[in-house]
Design goal:
11 strands
Amino acid sequence: MDKQVEVQDDLDSILDISTRNQIPHLHECGGHGRCTTCRIRVLDGIQNLSAKTPTEREASFIRKWDPSIRLACQTYPKGPVVLQRLIWSMAEVTALQKELAPEGRAEERPIAVLFCDLRNFTPMSSQNMNFDLAYMLNRFYTAMGEPILMNNGIIYQYVGDEIIGVFGTTGGTREKNCTDAIRAALGMQYALEHLNKVELKDLDLELKSGIGINFGKAYVGHLGHPTHRQFSVIGDPVNVASRIQGMTKTTKTKILVSLNVMNSIRENILDTGQEFELELAGKEGLAQLTEIKGFKEMDSQLELQSSLHLMLNDQDAFAHIFYEKVFEKSPETRLLFKRNMQDQGRLLTHMLSGIVYTLARPDHLISGIKALGKNHVQYGVTAAHYPIVREALLETIDTVLGTNKTPNTMNAWQTSLDFILEEMQQWNKVKT
């Protein structure tokens, strides 16, 4: 997006300026320098920017940034500058974890590893044209990759018809990393159902997959030739996860996890199926494997994640329906929207998507939501507007999802919106 804005003084950061001008600009932590999602590249006028703060210097050093990369929340313009936002979508955020992997060596870290395999790929290859095959694989990779990214995982590799995700490369508790991996696996199953039902129905194909998850200590780092190092995850937990995935074929199951994973999560939260004691290739003794069918009780994160793509498949349409409902309920709110409504709508869907992704990173969630509340006060939003927004959003979600919604989906959105809007209003309470 090419956009030029004028600034009257040097009291606002570049992020503040973006926010005031309703330019979608990722800032997961709310603009407090605790993440690097608001990073920018300065194309011209770097001499017209404030010096780096200690927070920014530390981030630059750890990630080995060149001088042109700055944190928008820490940088104040003092004259004309030309810049480029570097992180455009929440799907790109988890890839930033790779920057924190050691360079030229590897460190042992406890991680959860997920292997997902596309079934019957070889017969499909011989029965379909190359163009159709590429289309199917791209749709498969996209649909199955999103749940990994939404749950704070990294897509480590695409290997033929396999996707490998890793969780916990930069920390997190054992319980969280394993729960994130399981939620991602269940989200992948939902995504595959939708893919078969909607996007691949005209090809007369039904894609199936098998998923294996393991947990253990593996070596993580950037390895390879000095001129071409790559992010790498090496170790027995990775190999075992692959073997577990292979056992989903033998056992005719969709998701299998190791005993290490089961021992890492809270008791009685999962709906489990069969249990197996099987010999894995290259391993001594029998491995205890458990079939995962779902969560015993509704998992709000999974419900929100699984419905987000369906909701925002046409972002402009979603925004149009929402604002029409808001204006119908409260005609005077039209006065708050003096800018291009298409840009305003994209800001809305950008915000909703960002919140759902950030649920997997709770350390940033609250500060990010409160920053949204602060921004909306600046836009002229008052406490009286929040009930209207809540009602309009729920009605819009209900309309857009249509037959794809379930009582659990709507319950998850209602509960989450109540929490989000309450946190956003804290800034209104501070100001009054």
